[in-house]
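This part of the workshop introduces the protein records we will be handling. The question running through the whole workshop is how a given chain folds. To make this concrete, we reproduce a full record directly below:
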Amino acid sequence: MHEFELIRQIFRDAGYARPQGAVAHSIGDDCALLNVPTGQQLAVSTDSLLEGVHFPAGTDSFLLGQRALAVAVSDLAAMGATPIAFTLALSLPQADVDWLRGFSRGLEVMAHKTAITLVGGDTTRGPLNIGLTVMGTVPAGQALLRSTAQPGQQLWVSGPLGAAAAALRVLDGSCVIDETTSAALLASYWTPEPQLRLGQWLLGRGAAVLDVSDGLLADAGHLATESGVQVVIEQALVPVSSAASVLSAEQALSWALTGGDDYQLVFSLSADQAVALQEQFPAASRIGYVCTGQGVLLLDGQGQVVGVERAGYQHF
């Protein structure tokens, strides 16, 4: 099957590629056509997922499709954007139709969950690599940024951390656990939930936001750097995944602090917004505060600074 027939059969005819909403024209021409409503800005983000680096070799293609799109859409959530469309650049060692159909089904599940439409892309021969560009709209001038944290604000995270890092130990066989806990960990890894509703709720509330992809300490460090402030995290307040704790009570906190891949949102917010936040998002937890200074401080239960050798994932 040549490239164009492959695209038509597996991607162009898929339900999640049909024009809808802001998508005026989808796959079939050199470009897609999007309508950006008056008073809105277009938010755009690109992710690249490489086999053996971002996911294990031999990964089930359905699970991979779900995860790849969820990870990309999480960037839209961190900006407070409403998803519109995505493109897919796929490098494949060979044209395996069964693999591609499974991958497409996974994309479709997450596309429906996040209300986003496939509008184009490219395929080429090479090592398995998935390039996704996602687009969404946000009210002009209101996008959530990393650079707006202010001293005196509280620091929050949208939900428990550490499950995805723990799941890697299940995937590589280094830890064996009961079926229920294993299923919970693997679900956290393969089907992370982009925090779109929370991101949109934070619009106009003076929050500085980013998603937890490289690890809480590392990503909080990005927020501190971009805002020119110091972020203080109280170790005892960090919500740790219960399933990660079952796998290893000793390692769970470390996974929560440095493991990454959770795709929760970490954000600063003024104290007067706390009650409204928890009414709408009860899973959110206050984990510290913002003050003058620079970098990230991690404090133990006695208020002493905890030394950390590794803050999170680094590619180089």
Notes: The longest strand covers residues 40-50. The first helix runs from residue 3 to 12. The chain has a mean pLDDT of 93. The CA atoms of residues 182 and 236 lie 25 Å apart.
